[in-house]
Amino acid sequence: MQEILHFIGGEFKASQSNQWIDNYNPAEGKIYSKIADANHKDVELAYQAADKAFPAWSETPIEKRSKILLKIADLIDENFETLAKAESIDNGKPVSLAKAVDIPRAAANFRFYAKAITQFSGKAFESQGLKTHNMTLNQAIGVVGCISPWNLPLYLFTWKIAPAIAAGNTVVAKPSEITPMTAFKLAEICVKADLPQGVLNIVHGRGQTAGQAIVAHPQIKAISFTGGTATGQHIAKTAAPLFKKMSLELGGKNPNLIFADCNYEKMLSTTVKSSFANQGQICLCGSRIYVEDSIYEQFKTDFIAKTKALKIGYPLEASTEFGALVSKEHLEKVAAYIKIAQEEGVKVLTGGKQIQLKDHKEGYYFEPTILEVDNNNCRINQEEIFGPVVSLMKFSSDEEALNLANETTYGLSATIWTNNLNRSMRFSQKIEAGIVWVNTWLNRDLRTPFGGIKQSGLGREGGFEALEFFTEQKNICITFE
Ligand code: NDP
Hints:
Blueprint: E1 2-4, E2 6-8, E3 11-13, E4 20-25, E5 30-36, H1 40-59, H2 62-78, H3 80-91, H4 95-116, E6 124-127, E7 132-140, E8 143-147, H5 153-166, E9 170-174, H6 181-192, E10 200-202, H7 207-216, E11 222-226, H8 229-239, E12 245-249, E13 254-258, H9 264-276, E14 286-292, H10 293-308, H11 328-343, E15 347-350, E16 354-357, E17 360-366, E18 369-372, H12 379-382, E19 389-395, H13 398-406, E20 410-411, E21 413-417, H14 421-430, E22 435-438, E23 453-454, E24 457-458, H15 463-469, E25 471-479
Parallel strand pairs: 1-5, 8-9, 8-11, 9-10, 11-12, 13-14, 13-21, 14-19, 18-19, 21-22
Antiparallel strand pairs: 2-3, 4-5, 6-7, 7-25, 12-24, 15-18, 16-17, 20-23
This protein binds NADPH dihydro-nicotinamide-adenine-dinucleotide phosphate.
């Protein structure tokens, strides 16, 4: 059985304890590889390797660092088919999605930061008449920790690692224990790209042991984390007293506001995607759909029909549009929410049940599910399910729509469908979210700041924001005669 090993100081290693975790293929419900299970001792080794590599890497000319990142991007492209297949097997996502989104974006992350770092620099402030000159240096922090979730495994892992190493830091990183395969393959790519030993160290294992050891390590000076809000709170409690820099990208319960004056066909097909892409397991999915009452019934009929037409199937089949959920535990969590919905008197319009695929009866498949709610405060509309479950609710005025959208503890993203410019601008200003999409969804320009407000997170990733996060500014003040 394939072993997923740690990558520490440029070498592949099992855990010192020789403990392993089973790795499941969610499409088949079967164990298909085993993962080295790190504890604090392995994290310490990874830290030592990163610390040793830091002086030389942070002094490496930017052009050289940039070239290595570009080489990693090229190698991701060269291994496109292998990586897409690995991501699909490990996560349960349709291979078509891994090919369209996950793997191209992983390469784009390295390519983007290879270029961005060549344009990133400090500032100068000339105090005229005072014979004084100030300047700032953006200095690498040292050893930083990057922890990522299972939903977009390589995409989100590289979104952190690329800016961290571009800026001259060395890294101890942990992918989700549920989807470690492409991070393991990335380590092989880094060897081929001649990334110096110890610049990137990857430990595998559980959040509560390996992840916690990274967060609590006194010499790991910054933590970039993407995952659930409860985990983020726990991480903040551990890291804050150590005065670590923290970037927290957390959960969401994103509103999708549909007005009668929108481009209906574009809205409908995009809403199917924003609801069920990656089986609804994208933090940016629009899980609360609010529809203007004059088109509510028509939308409901059309949306149900389009959802029922989604091709649910084995993720590696090219035509599959909707694959398996990531794990048995997650499937059970999603199913439990359908029970909660029924107890709350919420109507199931379509879906709501586990599916047994003909040839893969043990896989973790669940129907794309549409619920109809009439009370925004129900648990279904307030708690993050992070699966293929969306709710519909009607509204009759702009004011009501805005209140419904903002009535949540989360604030990651929002989508608005309208052709009324005034309304789109008004809503964009008033909606409590880090990202607002108007007449589009998941449309990303990597230069823009990415992150949430309220309980969806702290700080921003993307563009120069991530390079700011992964550096410390130092002010130098010089006087002359
Ligand atoms: P978790 O919070 O469970 O885990 C995220 C990562 O943190 C995993 O690598 C996990 O390891 C690790 N971890 C868990 N506990 C600790 C700990 N105590 N200390 C350090 N690390 C720990 O999230 P999921 O993996 O379940 O991902 C789903 C969540 O991620 C959703 O809430 C979703 O909204 C959010 N998300 C947010 C995004 C954003 O950009 N805002 C983007 C994508 C997802 P392990 O898996 O081994 O337990």
